Amino acid sequence: MKFKLISLISLVLFLTGCWDHKELEEISYVVAIGLDKSEDNKVEVTYQIANPEVGTSLTGSPPPNEQPFENITIIANDFLTARNTVNAFIGRQLSFSQTQVLIVSEELARSDEFIKMIYTGIRERELRKSVNLIVTKEKASEFIDINKPLLETRPHKFYQLMVNRARETGFVPPSDLLHFFQTTERDADLFPVIYATTKQDDIATKNKFEDEYKAGQIPLVNKNLAQFIGTALFKEGKMVGTLNGEETRIALILDPTIDIQDMLVTYVDPLEPKSRIACKVTVGRDMDINMTLDKPNSKIRIKVPITLEIIGVFSQIDYSTDIKKQKQLKDHIEDHLTKKVNENINKLKQVFGGEAYSWSLIAQRHFLTQKQYEDFNWMKSYPSFDIEATVKVTIEEFGQQVQTPKLKLVED
Description:
Layout: H1 2-15, E1 27-37, E2 43-50, E3 69-76, H2 82-86, E4 93-95, E5 101-105, H3 106-109, H4 113-118, E6 132-136, H5 140-146, H6 155-169, H7 177-186, E7 191-197, E8 227-235, E9 238-243, H8 245-253, E10 263-269, E11 272-283, E12 288-292, E13 299-313, H9 323-351, H10 359-363, H11 370-376, H12 378-381, E14 386-397, H13 407-411
Parallel strand pairs: 1-4, 1-5, 5-6, 6-7, 13-14
Antiparallel strand pairs: 1-2, 2-3, 7-8, 8-9, 10-11, 11-13, 12-13
């Protein structure tokens, strides 16, 4: 017994060690990877490398001219193995363990080379599959170089907070690398990806409302600020089009797997068309999606429950205590949203030949075997479906103050 105990203790001693241990100062963490199209089937890779000594109080005050990150761009065969090439001029080992975003230019995303290039990352253990995929209107290297975040000095924190907040408002879709791979391999749905840019469009867009913009269309006074709004749509691993913020929100509403937490929007006042009514929108969890999958007469009927909190009536019309006016408001918003939802469904079906609402996951339940589902060929069959959606609106409350303030008395 004593001999066995001594043997076990000896074995534990041999198992311990730090032969592969790396000190923090020997590692550089890549927080963002940018990919751009290059010639001869190569890729232009940009690494945004964080400086851990800037923006923290643990190491004292860094030199005043020290930057919180460094951007390095090289031309390589592959964006993963390129990190060894970077060691020709950087002494630290590059690590992808803290990478937050994979940024791809629209030019590369629309090319046939993109899917082959991105799939090299599926086997890389260090690159987390929760990394967010972002498509930029300009080159990814330009987006990374030009972007000057407000309030955040640490780039990894900026990407984390920006993407999470944009998802909460519904301006961009969830687009992590894992779900991109899963959806592409399933070959049934369109996959929505975050759309962003630092380039301001020259087209006048000041007459649009809060969610009708795409990235680059928001009329900003400040320059060099990244705009995260809208969707880049992918079909079979290739970008095929874009949606603006409003269309993105509608698509997310129709996806039962997604929960939008903080959607604020304005609608036309039915009794004063020149004014708007501000609302907080909540999508009910009991969305009814009824499918009849029978070629060639397949049908889908959707009922979408929406709850509204009225937070601003700019016309000062009293909707809160007048039941008749409340019904007019409810019917008006129901008609408006029903129209927008059906327009969204028809646009994706007719223009892009698919849907981005994860409905294929629901469709699988209608088949006894996986082979029956595969033989049905959801992606090919979907454009011929007869689809109709209706929205049911419930006005839950009128904010903290029920009665509408009488501003005319103030003016008098």
